[in-house]
Design brief:
The chain is an all-alpha fold. It has one domain: Histone, subunit A (Orthogonal Bundle). Helix content is 73%, strand content 0%. The chain has helices at residues 10-22, 27-37, 46-73, 81-90, 94-119. Residues 25-88 form the Transcription factor CBF/NF-Y/archaeal histone domain. Its main location: nucleus. This is Nuclear transcription factor Y.
Length: 120
């Protein structure tokens, strides 16, 4: 809805902002992750957190989109961990693909081990 000055009303602007915010990782989580890698006495500006929030959210969207396209071509509806690993490698993020593939393999083994012990 336009106001008398030709711009969007604040209600519409809030709606768009909410949609955009819903697509970003929570800023508190981003800040917490950033703090883990920095020295304890380091401070992180709000602008730095917001910039990182946008970058990591875009990265996740980029990789997920590639994995989703693979699933679509294979007529599957569910993106799984292997698809994400494939997408990372396909997009040239080999430095991430290998460790995440190892992590996924370890995670699945732990799940199998856990499920096996629950049944006994």
């Amino acid at each position: 809805m336009e106001d008398s000055f030709g711009g969007s009303s604040s209600k519409e602007h809030d709606k768009c902002s909410m949609k955009e915010q819903d697509q970003l990782l929570p800023i508190a989580n981003v800040g917490r992750l950033m703090k883990q890698i920095l020295p304890q006495n380091a401070k992180i500006s709000k602008e730095a957190k917001e910039t990182m929030q946008e970058c990591v959210s875009e990265f996740i969207s980029f990789v997920t989109s590639e994995a989703s396209e693979k699933c679509r071509k294979e007529r599957r509806k569910t993106v799984n961990g292997d698809d994400i690993c494939w997408a990372l490698a396909t997009l040239g993020f080999d430095d991430y693909a290998a460790p995440i593939t190892r992590y996924l393999h370890r995670y699945r083994n732990l799940q199998l081990h856990h499920n096996h012990h629950q049944r006994q």
